[in-house]
Amino acid sequence: MQGIHTMTDAAISSGPGIWSKLYQGKTLPILTVVLSILVAWYAGAVYLNSDTLISTYERTKVEWDAEKLVKDSWAMDRPILPAPHQIVVELNKTVFQKKITSKRSLIYHAWITTSATLLGFAFGGLLGILLAVGIVHVQTLDRSLMPWVIASQTIPILAIAPMIIVVLGNVGLTGTIPKSIISMYLCFFPITIGMVKGLRSPDVLQMDLMRTYSASTAQIFWKLRVPASVPFLFASLKVAVAISLVGAIVGELPTGAVAGIGARLLSGSYYGQTIQIWSALVVASVLGMLLVYIVALIEKFVMARMGERA
Amino acid sequence: MQQAYKVDGDGAPMSGMGKPVVEIEKLNLIFETPDAPVHALSDVDLTINAGDFVSFIGPSGCGKTTLMRVIADLETPTNGHISVNGMTPGEAREKRAYGYVFQAPALYPWRTVQKNIMLPLEIMGLSKAEQQERAAKNLSLVNLEGFEKKFPWQLSGGMQQRVSIARALSVEPDLLLMDEPFGALDEITRDHLNEQLLRLWDRTKKTVVFVTHSIPESVFLSSKIVVMSPRPGKIIDIIDCNLPRDRTLDIRETPEFLDIAHRVREGLRAGHSYDD
Q: Would the CB atoms of B96 and A213 count as touching at under 8 Å?
């Protein structure tokens, strides 16, 4: 179905002229939404920052009018809400103008967080899949493990993250590993749930077929359950990689980490550097989108190999 | 109630030629359900001989699919005796004595046509070369050469069902169990596949058990028709059907064909009035 839609879209937008393209494609609606958000943001910046500015004006006895107020509220050093262009300037300064190895480069901090994210994602994927395989094949595990898996996710991660950091710090584990364990703690859950569903997805007919061949449990697993679970696995992986990043950032907060996106958020809030916080947030969301996009790409490749309708 | 198996018709009788492949005596199967036990099969007696083409015909719920699933060891009878190739159905299944064709093609969507046919062969642990050879042989048997690399969704429903027949044949069983394999197809495709199946049966000399609820289909294909009635599922008539082996669809207009069809219909009607 989706294939047909994209095909018709492509057929329509392949017509001549950039304006007809804009008018008939998806670009115009998307641009409209972005523009509305920007307008609301600039207005919000004026609204939120004006109180501080006005009291400063009154204290320092500066003449001011509406135009000056608007201009100033978009150019403060420590605004309550920075204007979008301030964030862009900060991003340009910290992403493109600094060497990657510099402690002031956001790329450097993003990499620190990414490495913990990926390691945690790998751990979580492994743990999630192993749990699912156990739950599907051993009835005792299904009944004894599943409640714990669900209970583990009801504990707020912000409460348990400092404990993990402290405990692991005591046994000599610091840096990337504790952060990735918090990532793992968050991201194994959707993978377990998705894989249990996926490994159980073969229908009666597909299972009966295996029975008529008197296939072993291992053969049923590798030739039926695993391939049938792949679409479910990728759906979970996309969720998992995004929350894996959240886990890594949360893991950087309670340690007073010196590097990573979480550290930038932390130091930004210590010193009231809202622009720094916002640019770290932008980098985090871009990073999250990138990770999900990479998983989606791998999914596309794998599903194409498995004969999915293009 | 039960007919003598050997009826002397005009030509040589087609049933009862070989040794018994499936022997069923006093077989009962009762499903325990929450409200009341369902008597799915009641005192079934049946012998299927090598080379027979046996159809089970009857209305929904008469136990025809259940009886076939018992032969395939997909259901366990409550009591009674059944042997397949002189073994219990379980042993026969483990020896892969039969090929089973389901109502739906049940192809694995992530496997190409060739890989789907190779699935049972992989499970049996045959060599790659043997697997490929058998896949090619059986694909040509169902007239699907050149479709090896296609995925199931790229094939029509009729072609998918032919692939599933080729998959069942690739195990090289002497016994082929087919559960309404053409039920979901349109009549034109169905007629065509019936003719192909008949020729396949003639060529391979396999024993075929075929579940259907179409009277013309059962008369056209079978050497023996087992008429069943529901609640409790039981056999009410066994009709020998001695039409020439090389028949074509035209035979459906002949008096002999219509005679047998009439008898099947009478049997089905009797089964129903008993129920009311």
A: yes
Q: Which residue of B has its CA nearest to A204?
A: B106
C-alpha span between B21 and B224 (Å, rounded): 14
The torsion region of residue B25 among left (phi > 0), alpha (psi -120 to 50) and beta comes to beta
What is the least distance, in Å, from the CA of A208 to any CA of chain B? Answer: 7
| Tens-place pLDDT, residues B165-222 | 999 989 888 899 999 988 878 888 888 888 888 888 888 888 999 999 888 899 899 9
The half-sphere exposure of B262 on its side-chain side, counting CA atoms within 13 A, is 7
The model's pTM is 0.81
Cα separations (Å) of A184 from A80, A170, A197, A252, B53?
34, 20, 20, 14, 59
Distance of CA A253 to the CA centre of its chain: 17
Report yes or no: B212 and B264 within 8 Å, Cβ to Cβ: no
Closest to B50 in 3D by CA, of B179, B195, B166, B173? B173
Report the relative pairing of strands B53-57 and B79-84 from DSSP bridges: unpaired
ipTM reported for the complex, 2 dp: 0.84
B93·A215 Cβ contact <8 A? no
Q: Do A212 and B100 touch (CB under 8 A)?
A: yes
Any chain B CB within 8 A of the CB of A20? Answer: no
Mean pLDDT of chain A: 87
Chain A residues within 8 A of B98 when measuring between CB atoms? 212
Give the angle B92-B97-B100 at the CA atoms, nearest 5°.
110
Supply B30's token pair.
């009762």
CA distances to A35, A67, B274 from A25, rounded to whole Å, are 17, 38, 67
Answer for the pair B194, B206: CB distance below 8 angstroms, yes or no. no
Residue type, A132: A
Tokens coding A237? 């992986």
